[in-house]
Amino acid sequence: SLPIQTMETKSVTKSETVLRSLAIVGSEFCERMAYYAIVANLYLVLTKMLDLNPSESTSIILLWTGTCYLTPIFGGWMADAKIGRFYAILVFILVYICGLTGLAIIASTFDNFKGNTAKPAIFIGSLFIVALGTGGIKSNVSTFGADQFSDSSNPVSYKQTFFNWFYFAINLGALLSFTLIAYVQEQTLQVGLIIPAGLMGLSALLFLSGTRSYIRVPPQGSTIMKSFKIVYHAIVSPQPRTTMHSYSFLDRAKWATGSDGRFLFTTQEIEDVKDFSRIIPIQLMFIIYWMLYAQMSSVFYMQGLYLDLHVFNGFQIPVACLNLFDTAIILILVPIFERILYPFLKKRRIGFGMLKRIGLGILIMIFSMISAGFVEMYRLYLINIGESNTQTVANIEQVVSNLSVFVQIPQFALIGISEVLGSITGLEFAYDQAPDTMKSTTMAVFLITTGLGNYLGSLVVFTTNFVSDYFGDQWIKNEVNDGHLDYYFFLLAGLGVINLIGFILVGRRYQYKRESLKHR
Could you give the CA distance from residue 489 to residue 134 in angstroms, rounded to a whole number? Predict the structure, then answer.
């Protein structure tokens, strides 16, 4: 059996710390490459390989992405309550490989699947197995990495360095997937879908390479499950007689007892859940935000397929590479905001607190949808006056506008700016305002809003097509040039405006946990 190091490990050489950190970062790099290799051209695979229509493909992408952000809850529970982070990561790596193997089998035997009605079901089933695998890893790998420095002389500094390299690896994986692998996939989808399985196999080997030296924190129980139990007992328990001035329905759980007559929860545990409940209304405002964000890998991609992809000397770029403008903006703006803008505003005593930043992020996300809508209006105009040509992607020829795909840069860049203000600050808000004992639960809820946003997006696509078809002019048609993606983008912008109004109303009533945070 393999030796298990726990948090009580007293000493370890620096080289061992570096090696086990590299094993985790390298494994994450390969996993992210595999994940983004699926994301990069998933729309193309669904429409061209499985012959699904655009609205079906968009709905599946949104449902799948949503599931990728809901499964971390299960992965976190498995690690915290049952088997610990190391074994949770290992289990979900194996699940991940099973899903990717299913996708690779479909790709390698593609010709034999033609005309087989089971083909889409097998592919989509494998896709959702991948969602379970990536979600289980997502909820544990960064924390597991941080655990490795608990025996270091300067754990805070080492952890900061680890997270810098960890997120660098994620972005490097995305960069390579959205360029090199996306290009291969557009030339041959079959080979492009086999690559992720190989990458995940390499990820497993890298993770296992550090097995003997990893520090493994034993499972200590799930705060998420305890929170659910408190809410449950608050609902089913009768209202007690009390003279408490600030009585909450959650206080009912204070009198819940077990079979031995002892109280099930401490007062502090219930107070923590009460404090946590204050954050929920703000987090719920992110659901529509994430729905708009999800358009980047679905409808933006659909739009890009019908724009001119040719650049220098007729070279045709992959549609997915436009995602790099979102990534580039984030990498550029994060240090500028952190090192220059925020300190400047703080020094001038200009209030630009977390809620203001989030609100501005939501507003900029709305502008991204408006930008996409105007691009689509002009693209359709050019198609209608004959300013078009034919273009081949994945051996499929289609009529596209003469408008360069680079007109999408503003909508991708605006999403990047929005992420810096909205998404990153949203994470900061969730962590900072949560009770100390419920930070993991708060981060889990933040992931849930991402999943729900994608699910809501799938519902909006279905409803939009159903209603528009009822009135005789379907917006998202099989032939995109005959549809009205512009109307769809403007609808999303309208939903974003409603969300922004709701956020302002909720935000005005919110009281920060510590007043000083307001001006950070």
Answer: 29
| Cβ-contact 189, 393 below 8 angstroms | no
Q: How far is CA 469 from CA 302, 379, 465, in A?
A: 19, 22, 6
| Residue 417 token pair | 């700016």
The pair of three-digit structure tokens given for residue 47, joined into one six-digit string:
């429409």
- Which residues have C-beta within 8 Å of that of residue 368, sequence separation ≥ 6? 292, 410, 411, 412, 414, 415, 418
Helix (H, G, I), strand (E, B) or coil at 311: coil
Residues with Cβ within 8 Å of residue 102, at least 6 apart in sequence: 122, 123, 125, 126, 129
| Site of tokens 């810098």 | 164
Which sign does the torsion angle of CA 161, 167, 170, 171 carry?
A: negative
The rounded distance, in Å, linking the Cα atoms of 82 and 76 is 10
**CA atoms of 324 and 415, how far apart (whole Å):** 11
As a whole number of angstroms, the distance between CA 432 and CA 517 comes to 9
Phi, psi (degrees; rounded to nearest 5) at 242: -150, 150
User: Which of 448, 462, 479 has the alpha carbon at shortest distance from 60?
Assistant: 462
Both tokens assigned to 467: 């209603």
DSSP 239: P
Distance of CA 188 to the CA centre of its chain: 27
Ordered per-residue pLDDT tens for the chain, 520 residues: 333 444 444 445 667 777 888 899 899 999 999 999 998 888 888 887 787 888 888 899 999 999 998 888 888 888 878 888 899 999 999 999 999 998 888 877 765 555 666 777 888 899 999 999 998 898 888 878 877 876 665 555 677 677 767 877 888 888 888 888 888 888 887 788 889 999 999 999 999 998 888 888 888 777 777 888 888 888 877 766 555 555 677 878 877 777 777 877 888 888 888 888 888 899 999 999 999 999 988 899 889 999 999 887 778 888 888 888 888 888 888 888 878 888 888 888 777 788 999 999 999 999 999 999 999 999 999 999 999 898 888 777 889 899 999 999 999 999 999 988 988 888 778 877 877 767 767 777 888 899 999 999 999 999 998 998 888 888 988 888 988 999 999 999 999 999 999 999 999 888 877 544 444 4
CA 44, CA 309: separation in Å to the nearest integer?
15
Q: Which residue has the tokens 């700016």?
A: 417
Helix or strand holding residue 392 (H, E): strand 388-393
